Amino acid sequence: MYHVVDNICRASGKCIIVRLQPVDIHRSEENTFRMILFSYDIFTAQAAGGISRCMIELMRALASTTVDWQLWAGRHGNELLPAALDDPGIATRILTTGPRTAGSRLAGSLRNEPGFARAVRNLHPSVVHRTFYPMIDLLPRTGIVRVETLHDMWDERAASAGSRRSRLKSVIKHRALGRADVIICDTESTRREMIDIWPALEGRSTVIHLGVRRLSASPETGTRDRPFFLFVGRRGSYKNFTVAVEALRAPALRDHDLVCFGGGPFDRDELALISAAGLGGRVLQMGGSDDRLAGLYEAATALLYPSSYEGFGLPLLEAMIHDCPVIAAPLTSLPEVGGDAALYADPDDPHAWGDIMATLAGDRVQADALRRLGRERAAQFSWAETARKHAVLYADIAR
């Protein structure tokens, strides 16, 4: 059971959510509607990234439902979307307006928003689902049902700490959410944080978790000779990379390395941190394909995820679906996603991380139990289920 909008009233040009009612996600989708139109926004905002990947996965899964949808992709520089064109369930639903064009997020909005507004007027979709918070919004304020997905509230935290860039991004986000009829939050943690900061948005919000699927059917093998822990993605700020490095200094972990996948090469400060810890040659960075990442997950002793803030934390589920134990911080959305299938340690305490890492490295029984729990946990987050919940939501709000 989850909550979707039961009734929408429009008065004085404003959208008002009257109340939310529980809906059975397993009911048949009896309500018919014209079409869901997804916007170009995230594909101009990201060359590659988690949000654009997740939106593609949602659309891929929706192709197996009764939902009629299209993506107005416009001109963009996203690197993930062209690969999705190999999927016939997606390729026939993508509307493009010209060759791929890289550029800033603002340039993408200036280039694409007028065409997207014309497409909305011509196609008359039942629901417009904006894939990211638009820099420029030329859609009419009435006569259109809008959906926005809220992925996290990090910019609001950074803005409160004095970041001007985050303050501007927060203003853009708040404006987009304020125009939405329904706000889909990736986690209850994000929804609660949104309500704390913008309580007026509570009545139009709901939660639909993201899904996960195996990254590769042919993971690379034999990538490392020594046992290792894995750190995935960006390493700056709240990701707490320092904790992972310091934890590896535990005497019981002398035979282990730390492999960092993605996030770019180590910068000067990171190299200095590794050198000061006496771990030269034992902390490595690499990039590559999903086949390589899947192979690293399956070979790693555990995924280390000491982040102090996440809107979701998809690498936890990616690790679990590839039989990799997970150690994470017990903060924000991570316990909501990891449940009892992960081990948790204080992200401010490298010694606690080192102790848990050493215990897991030396206890095969516990590691195997975590792998089993992880498979069971990941199975609860399928893209098919995510798409089905979106389909029921679209049908209800389009009535």
List the helices and strands and how they pair.
Elements (H helix, E strand, L loop, with lengths): L1 E4 L2 E4 L2 E4 L2 E4 L12 E3 L2 H5 L4 H13 L6 E4 L8 H4 L3 H4 L2 E2 L9 H19 L3 E4 L15 E5 L3 H7 L3 H16 L2 E4 L2 H10 L7 E3 L20 E5 L8 H7 L9 E5 L6 H9 L6 E4 L3 H10 L3 E3 L8 H8 L4 E3 L5 H5 L4 E2 L5 H13 L1 H15 L4 H15 L2
Parallel strand pairs: 5-6, 5-8, 6-7, 8-9, 9-10, 10-11, 12-13, 13-14, 15-16, 16-17
Antiparallel strand pairs: 1-4, 2-3
Helix pairs in contact: 2-16, 6-7, 9-14, 12-15
Describe the model.
This protein has 399 residues and is of the alpha/beta class. It has helices spanning 41-45, 50-62, 81-84, 88-91, 105-123, 154-160, 164-179, 188-197, 241-247, 268-276, 290-299, 314-321, 334-338, 350-362, 364-378, 383-397, and strands at 2-5, 8-11, 14-17, 20-23, 36-38, 69-72, 94-95, 127-130, 146-150, 182-185, 205-207, 228-232, 257-261, 283-286, 303-305, 326-328, 343-344. The chain folds into 2 domains: 2-211 and 382-397, Glycogen Phosphorylase B (Rossmann fold); 228-378, 3-Layer(aba) Sandwich (Rossmann fold). Helix 2 (50-62) crosses helix 16. It is globular, with a radius of gyration of 22 Å. The two termini are 20 Å apart.
Strand order of the biggest β-sheet: 7-6-5-8-9-10-11
SS-based class: alpha/beta
| Number of H- or I-type helical stretches | 16
The CATH topology of the largest domain is given as Rossmann fold
What is the mean predicted local confidence, pLDDT?
Answer: 90
C-alpha termini separation: 20 Å
Which outline best applies?
A: globular
| Main sheet overview | 7 strands, parallel
Number of strands: 17
Number of domains: 2
* CATH H level, superfamily name of the largest domain: Glycogen Phosphorylase B
* Helix residue percentage: 40-55%
CATH C-level category of the largest domain? Alpha Beta
Beta-strand share of residues: 15-25%
| CATH architecture verdict of the largest domain | 3-Layer(aba) Sandwich
